[in-house]
Design a protein that fits this description.
- Pfam families: SusD-like_3, SusD_RagB.
- It is found in: Cell outer membrane.
- Belongs to the SusD family.
- By secondary structure, the protein is mainly α.
- It contains 20 helices and six strands.
- The longest helix is centred in the first third of the chain and has 26 residues.
Length: about 500
């Protein structure tokens, strides 16, 4: 009986040992898996890829080494403090700012668009409009990123289809050839993009806005005016009255409201053409690392080497008042005096007495407003004194004003991380830029009166003095872009398209 009982236990064990020796036992048996062959079989499969492309747009403005920070650091408006050692910037490496490696990131986004474009006719569409809408948005994304690529690098390979194997035969195309291609693609796209859509999805307005930029870069000025006019005459309008969160705060103004993150995709905001969605309250996998605007653009006012008091002790610290507003500035982009002062000193007024709401005291944090925030300092709450710095002559470079209304992105109530710029929606395109695109197109046509009208439309909302047609120059137009579109437009790219006109 005992022998019988033992055999009951031994035989199953021998079976398990024998099975364990079989390699097939170790092979996983997936219940399902996704490939390009079983995903892109209907519109839902393509929609999943479009969602990825829309999420790719957040790379422009989120995380510390974001693409837009590179744009402003490479312009007249800022200096990349952390990349001053240009010996660390080579064709295949970049120690601090990813001026080089971002090209690989952007080509990854081009690849996503090309997958959709190449496979669009691998299935029989029951509704041709479904096909065209998917293709139109894929064209929009590819054109958006190629416009950025040629702005960064000039001539480079244009990938028109999905790369499905190893290739070593890539050849550069001229930026003009690429402009012709994305112009043609976008002329198709604007015919099929939706007039309205959920936040974060490109619409016909976003299509015409991008097409106007492409026409302008391609020196097709009549078409640029026409495309911009379709946007301006469409379902959009500049915001000229208080709205949204904080609208009841009498100290603020419409410019402040325009740039509150909760207002950018609000139904009240008729100026938004396209803005991505990024919310702290979303699941961790659905949100980005954050905007990092306070880290990227604000100065290192809190640092021990900068904020010393008269006793040589720390007068400024990374805690308490100021820290919750200005955050832990790095900065990756040290804003120049040209951007902070020069472009505002027009019509006989200085930055301390400007009627322009975009430089209003409530919207900016100036050097003179900095104070010692360390309770342990003998100068607690007293104004910052640059003579206490280790190198006082560096005051004008190390401590600079902040466009607070753009950079302020405080932590959420339940967010305990270092304040660097929390999550928030951000503009890709808004109507004020469309007016400035059309103003430039009018300028190249020689129609200075119409250019002045568009410039003054934007300036009037900001309470800035009107200008006359005789005052319209290309420099003024680009100064106006810097005043209106700080941290929004890809500054270096837009300067390059102007250079191509000359």
């Amino acid at each position: 009986m005992k022998k019988y009982i033992k055999s009951i236990f031994i035989l199953p064990m021998l079976f398990l040992v024998i099975a364990a020796c079989n390699e097939d036992f170790l092979e996983p048996q997936p219940l399902s898996f996704f490939t390009t062959d079983n995903v892109f079989v209907d519109r839902a499969g393509f929609e999943a890829l479009l969602v990825t492309m829309r999420k790719d747009l957040t790379r422009e403005q989120t995380a510390q080494k974001n693409f837009m920070a590179h744009q402003w650091a490479a312009s007249e408006a800022g200096v990349p403090w952390l990349q001053m050692d240009f010996t660390a910037l080579t064709p295949n490496s970049d120690r601090y700012q990813q001026f080089v490696t971002q090209i690989n990131d952007i080509f990854e986004m081009v690849k996503n668009a090309n997958v959709a474009i190449t496979r669009i006719d691998d299935l029989e569409w029951t509704d041709e409009q479904d096909r065209n809408e998917v293709l139109a948005e894929a064209y929009w994304h590819r054109s958006y990123w190629y416009y950025r690529l040629i702005g960064n690098y000039g001539d480079l390979p244009f990938l028109k289809e999905e790369v499905r194997g190893v290739r070593l035969d890539f050849q550069s195309h001229s930026r003009w050839a690429i402009l012709d291609q994305i112009q043609s693609d976008m002329e198709f796209a604007v015919q099929h993009l939706p007039v309205s859509a959920a936040p974060g999805i490109p619409t016909k307005g976003a299509g015409d806005h991008l097409l106007a930029k492409i026409y302008l870069a391609n020196m097709e000025f009549d078409q640029a005016v026409a495309a911009a006019s379709r946007v301006i005459d469409g379902p959009y309008a500049l915001m000229t009255e208080r709205f949204g969160v904080e609208a009841d705060d009498p100290e603020k103004n419409v410019i402040w409201d325009l740039h509150r993150h909760a207002n950018k995709n609000s139904g009240q905001n008729t100026e938004t053409i396209l803005a991505f969605v990024d919310r702290w309250e979303a699941p961790p996998t659905a949100r980005t690392p954050g905007l990092f605007t306070m880290r990227v653009y604000n100065c290192s006012w809190w640092h021990s080497s900068i904020g010393k008091d008269k006793d040589g002790n720390r007068g400024t610290i990374d805690a308490g008042p100021l820290y919750d507003s200005l955050g832990r500035g790095n900065p990756d982009v040290a804003l120049s005096d040209w951007h902070s002062y020069t472009i505002w000193e027009e019509a006989g007024y200085d930055y301390t007495n400007t009627p322009d709401l975009r430089r209003a005291d409530i919207n900016w944090f100036d050097r003179e407003e900095l104070y010692y925030n360390n309770p342990a300092s003998s100068q607690y709450l007293e104004p910052f004194d640059p003579e206490n710095m280790d190198i006082p002559s560096e005051y004008w470079a190390r401590v600079y004003p902040s466009p607070f209304y753009k950079t302020y992105s405080p932590n959420a109530p339940d967010q305990t991380s270092i304040p660097m710029g929390s999550n928030g929606d951000w503009y890709i395109y808004r109507l004020a830029e469309t007016y400035l695109i059309r103003a430039e197109a009018y300028y190249w046509q020689g129609d200075l009166a119409s250019a002045a009208t568009d410039l003054n439309t934007v300036r009037q909302r900001a309470n800035a003095p009107a200008i006359s047609p005789a005052e319209v120059t290309i420099d003024f137009i680009f100064d106006e872009r810097a005043r209106e579109l700080f941290a929004e437009e890809p500054r270096q790219n837009e300067l390059l398209h102007y250079g191509s006109q000359k």
